[in-house]
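REQUEST
  id: r-88c1
  op: predict_structure
  target: M3 family oligoendopeptidase
  payload:
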Amino acid sequence: MTQTFASLTFPRPTEASLAESFGVVASLLDAGDIAGALSRFDRERRTLDSWSALVHLRFAQDTTSEKAKEDRDYADHLSPKATAHEVSIKKRLLAEPLIDRARSVVGEHVIALWKSDITTFDTRIEQALEEEAKLTSAYTALLASARIEVGGETVNLSGLAPWLEHADRSVRHKAEQARWAFFAENGATLDDLYARLVALRTDMARTLGFETYTPLGYRRMRRVDYGPEDVARFREEVATHVTPLIALLLEQRRTEMGWPDLHYWDENFIDPKGNPKPAGDYDLLIERAENMFDRMSGGLGPFFKTMVEGGYLDLKNRDSKAGGGFCTAFPDVGMPFIFANFNGTHGDISVFTHEMGHAYQNWRSRDLPTIDELWPTMEAAEINSMGLEFLTWPHMDLMVEDGAADRFRRMHLISSLSFLPYGVCVDHFQHEVYARPDMTPEERHDTWRRLEQHYMPWRDYGDLAYPAKGGRWQAQGHIYRNPLYYIDYTLALCCAMQLWLLSRRDEAAAMTAYEGLCARGGAAPFTTLIADAGLVSPFAPGALADVVREAAAELGLSAD
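RESPONSE
  id: r-88c1
  status: 200
  body:
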C-alpha cells in the first residue's frame, strides 16, 4: 500500500543533525567501509530531498501562508549547508585511493556528475545561494499576487489563460492589455530582482574561478556531455528550419481569418473554430485520464490510479497557488507529485500529460541504486514529459470536447513547432545576459527584442507597450528561477517528435522505446540515453530538419 500524500512527514533537519548524519558517512569512510558509507550517504540525501521537496511544494500550494513561507525560508537557509556536507563527502570519494572503489559501486556516470558537482560549490558562496533562493521566491510570490480584472471577473495569471485564447479577437486583445499592465506596474521590481540575481550568480561564478556564470550554470544543470557551442549550433538550426515555417503558417492563418494584420494576441489562437476545450470539468478529466492510461501499454494505468488514490495531484487553479505546473518527488517513499493550475483550456491537457510524463519516469526509475539516477538531467527528463504529450494523441477523443480530437492534435503539433523559436530565444537571451552581466535593464530589454526579431520576426505587439519595448521575457519564470534551463525543452522536443513519428508507424515500438527511456531514469548522460533509445541527437546534422519536414508535411506545409 502506497503511503498517502496527506500522511507524508519527514524529519526536519537542523545544522546539528546534518553535521551528525554526514559525520556518520565520514566515519564509515575513515573505517574503510566504502559500501556502507555510500549506502548511508544515499539514504541521508533521499530523506533530505524528500523533506525539501515537501516544504517547497507546500509553499507553491499556498504562497500566502506564513507557515509555508517560514518553512521555505528555513529550507533555503539550510540548503547551502547541506550542500557543503555533500560536496565534502563527494570530494573524498573522488580522490585517491577511494575513487576506483566508489566507481565500482555507483558507476562512471555518477562519478562524472559528482566531478561536476564539486566545482559548483564552496562555503564562500553559502550566503549567496541563500540570497538567490530568497530572490527567486520573491519573484514567484510577486507573480502569484497578480489580480487581474477581465470580462467582469478577477483572476490570477493562470486564470487569465481562457481569455488569452478567446474566439473574440477584441477579448484576447483586452486580456493581453490587462496582463501586461500588471507587468508594467511591477516592471521596476522585476528589473531589480533580475539585476540582483544576475549580479549574485556572476559573483558566485567568479568566486569559484569561472570568468562568467555560463560555465557554472552548465555544471549546475549537470550537463556533462555537451556545451554552449553545441547549443548555439542548435539554436541556429531552429532559426534556419523552423522560423520560416512558422512565419508561413502564421501568414496562412492571418489570411484564413481575414485579419488585416497579425498581432501577438493572435498567435495562440490556432483553430478558426476556437481552440478545442477539455471534455469537461476536473472530475471528468480525471476519470477520462484513467481510461486513457488504461488503454496504453505498460504501467501507466496502474501508476495513475496510485497517484489519484494517494492524493499525489494538485491540479485545480486557486488564488493562493503559484503559477505554472511542475512535478516533484519524494525519494524516501518512491512517489512523485504533480502540481498544475487547470483553467478550462486545452493547456490543461498538455500540462497534465507533460507532468504525468515526468512523474511516470520518476516512478519507473524509483528503484535505481542511487539518488543521482532517479532523475535524468533536464533535457533528457523533458523527453519523458513531451514524449507522453505525443504518445497520448491516439486517445485524445477522451480528453477533449466531442469531435475535436483531430483539431487538438493539429493544434498541439503547431504549438510544438511554434515553441521552438521562442524556446531558443529564451536560451540565447540568457547566454547574452550572463556574458554581459553589467547590462542595464534597458539593455536587457533591447537584447530580448533584438533576439525576438531574429527568431520570431513576425511578432507585432501592437499597442502592448511593455512587451513591445522588450519586456516579454519577464513572464518566463525559468529565466529568474532556473538559469539556463530552457533550451532543455527544445532539445527534448526534437527527440519527442521522433517518438511521435515512430508511433505513427508502430505505436507498440514507440511505447516500448518510451518505457525503456523512463526506466533508465538518469543512469546515463543525455546523448547516451537518447542513442540507446534509438533516437537521433539534436546536435547531429539534419536531425531537426528531418523532424520538421515530416511535421510540416502532416500540416500540409512545405518545410523548405
